[in-house]
Amino acid sequence: MEFQFDVDALLPERITVLDQYLRPPARRPGTTTPARVDLQQQIMTIVDELGKASAKAQHLPAPITSASRMQSNRHVIYVLKDTSARPAGKGAIVGFLKVGYKKLFVLDDREAHNEVEPLCILDFYIHESLQRHGHGRELFQYMLQKERVEPHQLAIDRPSQKLLKFLNKHYNLETTVPQVNNFVIFEGFFAHQHRPPVPSLRATRHSHGAALDPTPAAPARKLPPKRAEGDIKPYSSSDREFLKVAVEPPWPLNRAPRRATPPAHPPPRSSSLGNSPERGPLRPFVPEQELLRSLRLCPPHPTARLLLATDPGSSPAQRRRTSSLPRSEESRY
Ligand SMILES: CC(=O)SCCNC(=O)CCNC(=O)[C@H](O)C(C)(C)COP(=O)(O)OP(=O)(O)OC[C@H]1O[C@@H](n2cnc3c(N)ncnc32)[C@H](O)[C@@H]1OP(=O)(O)O
Predict the structure, then answer these.
(1) For the segment 220-250, what is each residue's pLDDT rounded down to a tens digit?
(2) Which sign, positive or negative, has the C-alpha torsion 169, 104, 220, 75?
């Protein structure tokens, strides 16, 4: 992936680690240094373009990685650049890997809820022309060393088939522990959960060379005291949740059964382990009669028309309760 500016000078190392500040790394001695604000703009452009390319590769309706999302989350991106001989060129970007710690409620093999905060694989992309050349593994391996985690300690946010194959091939990760959310964890995830907590994301905001840190692997960031089962909701917020909310019509029409307004783009893939229950944004409570009245008063909207025409005897809420779709299917819309 090429850019109009000099990627090679902007990112001196083969792998650059960026955090929420998206700070440009120190430049090589002797390189001309443009204004810092311009350099940060270039970094933001790279992150935005990588996010778009990744979303396209995964058939997502919108990028889950962007400079603005980076700035509002404590995630870390590992960016891999092309170091092949390009004396006259400006370098190119090969791909990226985004990780971050997330509080999750995960089921163990006895189906008990566990509140954990593992490092999660959130987004991963290698340019189409360079896939299956070992670049993904190089990036992943670098991240594992830097974050000091073992592959089986990771949680993966809705892995694609390619990523599942990748994890199986390179890290022997195959047997999953079934979950009711979008995250996939593998056998061995709970093996080290009771080891002492470690500091937060270790990646620094500067670029790093390929020198690897030999510190032994460490588990999830922390393990809070176990809560009573009744306090725990068996789902966790995926970074991809906002993609579902984005396709909703405005309130109150968004209270209609989701099948009536399927998204323009179907979800890119489904976790074979089931999906989280739908969690839309908070909305005011409206009694059903008032809701029906507001629907009738609304200017004609395709969704409302469909609702009132298909089954005049029942309210939207009733229809939702009696939907024939299995829960996991329904929540994809
Ligand atoms: C949580 C998430 O981020 S899910 C989204 C993951 N990203 C994507 O699906 C985007 C498209 N895919 C990609 O960008 C890349 O293929 C990645 C990131 C998954 C892997 O990066 P690569 O550089 O291709 O991986 P690398 O070359 O190190 O390893 C290759 C292995 O990955 C898997 N793999 C990569 N591409 C494919 C593919 N098209 N079909 C099946 N398996 C694939 C295979 O196991 C492959 O080994 P093989 O060639 O012997 O079959």
Answers:
(1) 554 555 545 444 444 456 777 777 655 555 5
(2) positive
